[in-house]
Design goal:
The protein is mainly β. Helices cover 5% and strands 47% of the residues. The strands form twelve sheets. Strands 1, 2, 3, 6 and 7 form a five-stranded antiparallel sheet that branches. Strands 32, 33, 35, 36 and 37 form a five-stranded antiparallel sheet that branches. It has a four-stranded antiparallel sheet with strand order 5-4-8-9, with no helix packed on it. It starts with 5 loop residues before the first helix and ends with a strand.
Length: 567
């Protein structure tokens, strides 16, 4: 480095360092922020239920310290209107009050006219000061705004609609709840809106309060009073004196109906499904010397659908108060064994009229088995039940079915026997009768529980047989000798009696003075149906030949017997 430059550089460096030190130190001292204190203060919030009070959160971050005192002052601009030396701590178990401090109830702020220090309704600034147990203190200016205005409060009624005035008449009062004192101050000249809620029909209406705060709204039509008809009264204001809103709801459930007298009757006691039932009656007004009421609705029903919905129609009375409804009976409608006349107008009251009517269920007969025995017995089994249900309908009476026969399966049906189909789980039946075969069916006749039904037609046949030319001999016969019985077995086939060969037959004997036949010999017919059977004779008696049938033939009828004397 050049020697002549060193002094100059050293001097410049020294002067520069001194200048920087002189300029930097005062600047750092002026810009350094004050050390933050450990106490925090939240926003002061007016209690809307009592606007003469408020609450504010206060805390300390100092170790092992707690807030010991919170005070507040209310001011308007620079003018302090109220001093509150101590706010009360909230309950620690209440999550909405823990850590917050409240104006004590006895220190609630009031208007000067009520003995307080607040000159008028309005809004005012809240300053809050908090101190902890270590002596730390902090003040938050403008911690919140005290809403010291009237809180609106509505009462609301809808009146009672009546027969001659089917309207709700909204009415009530509107007052302002005064901060501090809690006095109710009438709010006059205010507009209250009343409007239907949800699906309730109608348009909003308004009413203006009088000097007492009372209001009466225009009429609102109420066609169907009940829990589905609801009205709402609404008021809202944000002014220097009043702040807030209130709404009240009311259901229109009560009415003043007109009580009338109704008589009614049905034209039948039983109606099959699809038949017409006519229910007629008359409506009169006992309050008008029994005068008829015209153009009034009534519900005429035959039973109910599921969940109690009536199965019927609404008709109106004529000039003479008379009404008539033609209803089609429907089997299977739930609780469908009565007719009713009831009111569908909530403003019309009368004692319900009704009576029993049988609407039989449609039924069916399912055959399970049947046959025709060789001794001319027809039998059939089956299940009787409702047509459209697998299981039996519960009934308190036993149902009867009858076995019927016809020569051609179409006409001339005649009853052979009857059987019961009890109302158990399967409602089975068994029917039997004596018959030589033909066309058969099972039939149920109409009852109050079930309509008529008929099973399918079925045919059962067997071939008739007979013993022709029966003879026993010799006559007389010696005791211990053989009696020979002869004859011919025939069956009726192809429209004529023909021989029946190679069939089993039996010889029977009945001793004189007895009623018992004993089988004494058996054999088979020849190729041409010829029969020859013999047995020893020991006493006087009668002899006969029998054929006992098979899967397709009847037994032969018991033929005449041939008496043989034994000597």
């Amino acid at each position: 480095m050049r020697a002549d430059l060193r002094p100059r550089l050293s001097l410049v460096a020294a002067l520069t360092a001194a200048a920087l030190s002189a300029a930097a130190l005062p600047a750092l001292a002026e810009e350094a922020p004050a050390a933050p204190g450990p106490i925090g203060i939240g926003t002061a919030v007016t209690d809307d239920g009592q606007r003469g009070t408020f609450k504010v959160a206060a805390w300390t971050d100092a170790p092992q310290a707690k807030v010991t005192q919170v005070s507040a002052r209310i001011r308007q601009g620079d003018t302090v209107l109220a001093e509150i030396p101590a706010l009360a701590p909230g309950n620690t178990w209440d999550p909405y009050l823990a850590g917050r401090f409240l104006v004590p109830a006895e220190a609630a702020l009031k208007l000067t006219e009520d003995g307080g220090t607040i000159p008028a309704l309005g809004t005012y600034a809240i300053d809050v000061t908090a101190t902890d147990s270590l002596g730390n203190t902090s003040t938050r200016t403008g911690a919140g705004t005290l809403d010291f205005r009237l809180r609106p409060q509505l009462t609301f009624g809808v009146g009672t609609p009546a027969w001659d005035d089917r309207n709700a008449h909204p009415q009530g009062t509107l007052v302002g709840i005064q901060p501090g004192s809690g006095d109710a101050v009438p709010l006059s000249g205010r507009t209250v809106t009343v409007e239907p809620v949800g699906s309730t029909p109608g348009s909003p209406t308004t009413a203006v309060t009088d000097e007492t705060g009372a209001y009466v709204g225009g009429p609102l039509a109420v066609a169907t009073p009940g829990w589905g008809t609801q009205l709402k009264a609404v008021f809202s204001e944000d002014s220097a004196e009043v702040h807030g809103s209130d709404e009240q709801y009311r259901y229109v459930t009560d009415v003043k109906p007109r009580t009338v007298t109704v008589t009614a009757a049905a034209d039948k006691k039983r109606a099959l499904s699809g038949e017409t039932v006519t229910v007629s009656g008359r409506m009169t007004d006992p309050g008008a010397a029994g005068a008829p009421l015209a153009d009034q609705p009534v519900l005429v029903s035959l039973g109910s659908y599921n969940y109690g919905t009536p199965y019927g129609k609404t008709v109106y009375t004529d000039a003479d108060g008379r009404f008539s409804a033609r209803l089609v009976a429907a089997a299977g409608v739930q609780y469908g064994e009565y007719w009713r006349v009831s009111s569908v107008d909530p403003y019309l009251n009368f004692a319900e009229r009704g009576g029993a009517i049988a609407v039989p269920w449609e039924s069916r007969i399912d055959l399970v088995g049947g046959g025709l025995t060789a001794d001319s017995k027809v039998w059939v089994t089956g299940v009787f039940r409702p047509r459209y249900s697998v299981y039996s309908r519960s009934t308190s009476t036993t149902q009867y079915v009858q076995l019927e026969q016809s020569a051609d399966g179409k006409t001339g049906w005649r009853k052979l026997s009857a059987a019961t189909a009890s109302a158990d789980y399967w409602t089975t039946f068994y029917a039997g009768a004596t018959s030589n075969g033909g066309y058969f069916r099972v039939r149920h006749l109409t009852t109050d529980e079930y309509a008529e039904s008929v099973s399918r037609v079925f045919r059962l046949v067997r071939t008739p047989t007979r013993i022709a030319g029966m003879n026993a001999g010799p006559e007389p016969v010696a005791k211990g000798a053989y009696v020979t019985a002869t004859g011919t077995l025939q069956h009726y086939t192809g429209g004529a009696w023909r021989v029946y060969g190679y069939a089993p037959v039996a010889l029977q004997f009945q001793a004189k003075g007895t009623t018992t036949w004993r089988q004494v010999a058996t054999g088979r017919t020849g190729a041409h149906g010829e029969i020859s059977l013999k047995a020893k004779a020991s006493v006087d008696g009668s002899w006969r030949i029998r054929y006992w049938g098979d899967s397709t033939h009847f037994h032969s009828p018991a033929p005449w017997a041939d008496y043989v004397d034994v000597r």
